Amino acid sequence: MASDEDYMAFLDKANQDPNESVAKTQGKVELKAVDSGVRVPAALKKATSDAFYVSDADEPFVPVCLKFEGKKLPDEATFAKLVNHPSPEEAEVQILDVGEWDTQGQYKEIVDATREATKGSDVRVYRIGREGSRVEYWVVGLENGKLLGAKALAVES
Predict the structure, then answer these.
(1) pLDDT band at 25, cuts 50/70/90?
(2) How confident is the model at residue 17 (pLDDT cuts 50, 70, 90)?
(3) Cα separation of 48 and 44, whole Å?
(4) If you placed Cys at 48, which of 29, 61, 92, 139 could pair as Cys (CB 3.0 to 4.6 Å)?
(5) Is residue 21 part of a domain?
(6) What InterPro entries does the database record attribute to this sequence (predicted)?
(7) Does residue 4 fall inside a structural domain?
(8) Other beta carbons within 10 Å of 64
(9) Going by C-beta distance under 8 Å and a sequence separation of 6 or more, which residues neighbour residue 48?
(10) CA distances from 143 to 15, 68, 69, 107, 114 (A)
(11) 2 within some domain
(12) Which residues, 6+ apart, have CB-to-CB distance to 116 below 8 Å?
């Protein structure tokens, strides 16, 4: 027969979160959306103030303002480095046209605000795979040494 201490140890182990060790190794890493020392354009602040990306978890859009010296929008690996992805070489990044991403035109205000902030530059959507069924959509354009736009988290099951 087990002692009281052994029985309590058994109960403690049975009641532990099964994902506890996974959470400690993966950690929640927030990707960088705004560089320090830069000012987010008013058009982006206004457009993201009450805009949500509709998915299994409706998440708010947040402004994006990152320093970038390239002359054209970055490729997948460069974008992953720019947002401080923990492993940019292995990041799941796809580049989409706005029409592929927003087939219904429901995020027109976000796209229009990005075009306004970037003075009509080309706008692309970067889809970054996160843990599990989570992805982030980054709607950005390039203007005067900065990537400007908005991003939102989506849960796709």
Answers:
(1) very low
(2) low
(3) 6
(4) 61
(5) no
(6) NuiA-like (IPR056539)
(7) no
(8) 27
(9) 60, 61, 62, 63, 110, 113, 150
(10) 53, 9, 10, 21, 10
(11) no
(12) 41, 43
pLDDT tens track for 77-88: 999 999 999 999
- The residue whose two tokens read 């506890």 is 20
Q: What CATH number is associated with residue 34?
A: 3.40.1460.10
The stretch 116-123 carries a mean pLDDT of: 95
pTM, rounded to two decimals? 0.81
| 59 touches 153 (CB < 8 A) | yes
Which is nearest to 151 in space by CA: 127, 116, 123, 130?
A: 127
Give the confidence band of 4 by pLDDT, cuts at 50, 70, 90.
Answer: confident
- Domain assignment present for residue 130? The answer is yes
Q: Is 150 helix (H, G, I), strand (E, B) or coil?
A: strand
What does the radius of gyration of the chain's CA atoms come to, in whole angstroms?
Answer: 20
Determine the pLDDT at residue 131: 87
- Mean pLDDT of the residues in the chain: 89
CB 33 within 8 Å of CB 153: no
- CA dihedral in degrees (133, 110, 79, 65; nearest 10)? -120
* Structural domain span for residue 41: 29-155
